[in-house]
Amino acid sequence: MIEVDNLTKRFGILEVLKGISLAVEKGRVVSLIGASGSGKSTLLQCINGLEPVQAGSIRVDGTQVNDPRTDLNKLRQKIGIVFQQYNAFPHLTALENVALAPRIVKGLPKKEAAALAVQELAHFGLDSKANAYPSQLSGGQQQRLALARALAMQPRYLLLDEITSALDPSLVQEVLDSLRMLRKDGMTMLIVTHEIRFAREISDQVAFFASGKICEFGPPEQVIGKPQNDLTKLFLAAVK
Questions:
Q1: Element (H, E) at 170
Q2: What is the pLDDT of residues 162-190, one digit of tens each?
Q3: Closest alpha carbon to 98 in 123, 76, 74, 75
Q4: Of 189, 171, 170, whose CA–CA distance to 180 is shortest?
Q5: Displacement of CA 35 from its chain's centroid (Å)
Q6: Cα torsion at 67, 28, 184, 141 (round to 10°)?
């Protein structure tokens, strides 16, 4: 499981995470909602070891992320992260993009990595686009390519940072359908999203962030359906 305990993160004098505590159990989906700048994306980056923290701890399967003795490259093989920017290599085909990390990081033979890439592309309905370059894909297809690339490393956990926010509304649904599929497959996910209806549908638990704190946490029918915190109520009224 992922365990965050009393986490504090600062950028200079700006405190962006203020004593965050959160647990994500295996096979569960937790959505993080709240206004931009409330600390949600920063939390994902801290969990993946992309940002140092000033206090508190993060553990992934018992390994402390913010321990200087931790091999972050090895730990990140357990944690896939997908950002709103697709970050595909433009000079590589879809298949080559997906096969790259298994070859370089895991040392898989070229043929084995290619077979794994074909499998993951097919998983996301992109098997016909294996030889296409990112510029030849729609935004929704590029985001599904990013998911395929993350899943090719066979992670235990998936961190998703507003992966639909850069998409045209017409393309959002195909990406959300891919997340529904991953949910059905039992993938453990921590999702930062502004898609409130989707968060209510897919999540086991929802955390509402405001000013670097979790103001409300619980099942979606409570946090989204019957919020108790006034800040949660104001936020949901504004986005509905």
A1: helix 169-184
A2: 887 767 777 778 788 888 888 888 899 99
A3: 123
A4: 189
A5: 17
A6: -50
